[in-house]
Amino acid sequence: MNKKTLNCTMAIVTTLAISAAVTSVASPPPQPSFSWQTVVNNGDYIPTANCKPTTPISPPCRKFNSYNQPSVNEKNLVVFRARSKGGSGGEPVHGVYTRDMNKGSAIVKILDRERLVANPNNQSSAFVEPPSFPRIDMVSSMIATRGNHQPVFGYTLPDGTDTKVGTTGIYTNPFGSLITGASKLGAVPEFSFFEVPEFPSVAFDVFPGAPAVTQGSTIVFKGNYTAGGVSKTGVYYRNLQNGNTKPVVLIANNTHCVF
Questions:
Q1: Which of 20, 42, 58, 253 has the most CB within a 10 Å radius?
Q2: How confident is the model at residue 16, as a pLDDT?
Q3: d(CA 79, CA 133)
């Protein structure tokens, strides 16, 4: 490269550098614009049977204290799990709540320790704890959440022994009211639609993690169970569109081979 060409090249590079610097100083890149809204914070009262969020009184009103990660759909409906403090005011409140951020409406209770578990429940058992964060359908107000509680169903075994079963499940609201989407009742003959599909009359032991929800009527979940004395696991779904008696359907498990 001769001296003339080198000087020309250096001039071009210098010009570009100066131009870039001027552009950077004169025209900073536009910053994204966000409009944040508070869904809930520790100044809000928890909606309970004896305390309405619009007319708080204390006691028995309790304020929110801690939260798990929320879920939100495209309609700006937010669902979240939250708790209050315990202490002199009594046991802490644990529950699942929603708030419509399009309307800025009040916080709505889905379930807490005051609420009876959805049927089947012939023991009048109430919820104790939602052990994982809830999820919401992208295009509808249907949510799904796990719930722990005391046994919900008592019945007589073929040998004449009385037993009580059902200490956890997945609860959802495709029709508005809370219903049972999955449960440990699969060994009860009249509730065979809750059984592990690949092992008839075998009930699920637990539903780890957070369930998913889709299409306004379907829940998807992981289920652990025991068959032949061996612990097993799989992923399943239930479509609740035409009633609550459709069986659980297998997606994949660690029992069958992958093809």
A1: 253
A2: 45
A3: 9
Among 181, 185, 114, 107, which Cα is nearest to 143's?
A: 181
**Residues 146, 130 contacting (CB under 8 angstroms):** yes
In angstroms, the CA 188 to CA 157 distance is 9
Q: What are the distances in angstroms from CA 125 to CA 23, 68, 98, 128, 253?
A: 68, 25, 23, 9, 31
Rounded Cα–Cα distance for residues 131 and 148 (Å): 7
Q: What is the pTM of this model?
A: 0.84
Please report the DSSP string for 100-169 in residue order.
ETTTT---EEEEETTSBPPSS-SS--BEEE--S--EE-SSSS-EEEEEEES--EEEE-TTS-EEEE--EE
Q: What 3-state class would DSSP assign to 79?
A: strand
- C-alpha 62/C-alpha 56 separation (Å) is 9
What is the structure's pLDDT at 27? 65
Distance from chain centroid for Cα 83: 15
Q: What is the pLDDT of residue 44?
A: 93
* Closest C-alpha among 143, 193, 195 to residue 171: 143
Flag residues of the chain having pLDDT under 50.
Answer: 3-18, 22
* Nearby residues of 118 by Cβ (< 8 Å), 6 or more positions away: 171, 177, 178, 179, 180
Q: What 3-state DSSP class applies to 186? A: coil
Given a contact cutoff of 8 angstroms between Cβ atoms, the answer to whether 252 and 234 are in contact is: yes
The fraction of the chain above a pLDDT of 90, given in percent, is 71
Spatial separation of the C-alpha atoms in residues 163 and 155, rounded to whole Å: 6
Give the C-alpha separation, 103 to 36, whole Å.
Answer: 14
